[in-house]
Specification:
By secondary structure, the protein is α+β, with helices and mostly antiparallel strands. It is built from 5 helices and 10 strands, in the order H-E-E-E-H-E-E-E-H-H-H-E-E-E-E. The strands form 3 sheets. It has a 5-stranded antiparallel β-sheet, covered by helices on one side. The protein has a 3-stranded antiparallel β-sheet with strand order 6-8-9.
Amino acid sequence: MNASRDTFSQIMLRSTDLDFPDDLPTGYGKYSEFEPIARGAKAELRSCWDPVMGRRIAIKTLRAECARDTTERRRFLREARITAQLQHPNTVPVYEIGRYDGDCLYFTMKCIAGEDLFKVLQRLSWKDRVTEESFPRERLVEVVIQACQACAYAHVHGVVHRDLKPENIWVGEFGEVKVLDWGVTKVTRHTT
């Protein structure tokens, strides 16, 4: 859910004062201006424009080679639904789950700016002066505490992340911290 700083430069008045469209686009078809963010072995993450809300969002799609694999589809939907249910300040809000091109899956979520904690730690190991000034020990401890709060919230709701690592902890440009990638979570208890 990362995007460049340019994406967040200002609120676009042109997109806030538009009348509600008569022919309201729905689903995947309403999104445009796709920009790549990341590509994994099983899914792709891109930013795109939502003309109805007038904002950039992130969209995650299951890659074509995994689209028909029942196990991958189940994991993908589980990630989207668990992330959507974990409504905590340190998780990313999910907006929509849907299909496109017949049976391909996607979900949309908040597009966030910043970088993963691994990159921060890597620059610190190189003794990068700017990073050392931006991330003193106290700030790093606060990042870890916020990530732990997201995991504690998930645990109370019967969810274990199972892949918590610096690459899955996002540090935003305004001090926000998000735990990402709930794709291999384990639900330890459930209710019917």
